[in-house]
What does this fold into?
Amino acid sequence: MLLQLVNQDLGYDRGLVLRDISIDIHEGDRIALVGESGAGKSTLLTAIQARLLEQAALVPQNPGLVGTLSVFHNIYMGQLNRHSTWYNLLNLAWPRRREIDAIRPLVERLGLEEKLFERAGELSGGEQQRVGICRALHQGGDLVLGDEPVSAVDSHQSRNVLDALHEHFETVVLAMHDVELALNYATRIIGLQNGGIALDRPTTGLTARDLDFLYKTSDENHR
Amino acid sequence: MKTIADVPAGTRPRYSAAVRVSTEFVAIAAFCLAFADISISTLDPWSEMQRMLLGVVTPDFFAVEAIGIAVVQTIAFALVGVALAAFAGIILAQFFHIRPVRWACAIARSIHELFWALIFLQMFGLSPLTGVLAIAIPYAGICAKVYAETLDETPAAALNALPAGVSTISAFFFVRLPDAWAHIKSYTLYRFECGLRSSAVLGFVGLPTLGYYLQTAFSEGNYSEAAAQLIMFYVIIASLRLWMKPKLVGLYLVVAPLLLGGASQIHWDNVVRFVTQDIVPAPLRNADLLDPQVWSALGDWLMMILTDQALPGIIATVVLTQIALVATAFLTLAFFPLISTKFFGRFGRGVGHLFLVIMRSTPEFILVYIFLQLWGPSMLPAIVALALHNGAIIGHLLGRYSDEIKLRPDSASGFNLYAFEIVPRIYGQFLAYLFYRWEIIMRETAILGVLGIATLGFYIDSAIADIRLDRVMLLLLVTALLNLGIDALSRLIRSRLRLSTRLSSCSD
It folds into this structure.
């Protein structure tokens, strides 16, 4: 088992977002976190990330790119901790062939090969998000935690991105707002509602309709 | 397997304009370094440094009389000078759209306070008027520019909302001034802090401010007294916001002129002679202006001064400026993490703040003077002092700027954080600040000639010693033009690199 939470209260300093949470995550789990905005998906991801800091590659909602550096450098940053500082500085000034060759397949996979030495800050929102994905792929490891990793990319690229994430990582935990995609890729769905876990079960046999109830409260509130 | 050659041009590594410009400046500085004299000529710099450090840890606050007078006079000159400058500045700002006004202000601020003081010394002697005007004139030029820029930012909507037929003066007092007031006030307070530093330095030409007493203490080797004076100066600057209250400004302004020291008699015939005789180029004095020989003599005179004095002065000034600029850049990059929450805890930042405050509160002129005592005359003391002072100023601004960066939760740490996350994000701001200080560093470099480094100030100081005031004026004109040239070049580079151009709190 990778992680076990038992009756935990989770949230930021200002107040609790999630109460009395119990989940466990195993190697090989493909989990989709679903629920309306503000239900606590990001909070749960942050809590998991804080506990698995050493093992997890992270795809934050805001990709956190350094806009003045190139796409290459932003992706290279996924492995900063694996090289000596001197080697990192060398790559900052003169990208090594070895590193470019290691990163090129990733950008080709996600359709960014022509942008490799563009400044990240000059890319579109969807492209920036894909750079963030590439960084996580380059970082590697057993587990990836993603907060709405395809929110800004088009539907064709969404599938491409999710395929890549699921191929590269054994364990995947993604917060998703697209229920259809969640059901397609995940083997387990965790639904959040009213500050708690409303549903936690395998996707087999589940349909989008079965998850509708998670989004009911917001509809009523809006009316 | 693809090779680099197969890859389209757009997908090869390349460098941003900011990195290219930085590399060019480093290369220029390295080239300049080859021609610069950076030797240490004193016999035993280490034991002298030990004596100085001993003085720093044993400050002699019992020299109360000298310290008290020095501090009070320094404040009084700064107050009167900056008040006059602010008043003149707000009036000049109304006419800043007129080109000759802009030029006059640019010339006024391109000449260092000490040079102005050297001019007025010839006219008024060691009268308080010399010190007050030496601060007021260049500062009026700077204030006019900044006030005008601030007033120009009045939202058009507010002005359009005025009924038709409102006079310019009413619009000024009802809309433009109130809108800009907060910024004008805080900028003027910042200017006053700079004024304190300028006032302190004026002591080096004989006015009764801090520099005069410091120089005396240094020449007597009385480092404990010098340390006490400097510490008092830091306390005054650090507590500025506590005693500089809006309600008290009126009182200060009434009292300050009375404290400027015993007014020596101004000899008006000196002033008249200065304007009508001394500054007229020698070949033209009492000459027949219709005689062609007079004009060819003037040509020879010009050529002689420009090639024998101005040219070597310009070369030394530019060489020293470029080295000091790049040294400032490196020190800035080393200094800013000292006060950044991204790199140090509360205690570390406290130490960092103390160090940076001391370095930026000490006028660069005084820092150079101290290092000159240690190492003897060469460019080395100037480079180190200018880099420390300017690096501390920009480092302070960048440190605060870096605090506002939001990092992703799993970002790198230590040196990787510095090199990959922080420096790339602040680099544009860093260059903008540096290019702003470029012109300031050059103005300071020119004046350092007074201390014996062979920049333009050295030739100006020698001409004053020879009482050849016509040469002084010509060399000052050259100095001003050089400064305006650097200012224009800096603006060009900043606009090419699209660096933000409104940073008045960093301009000096």
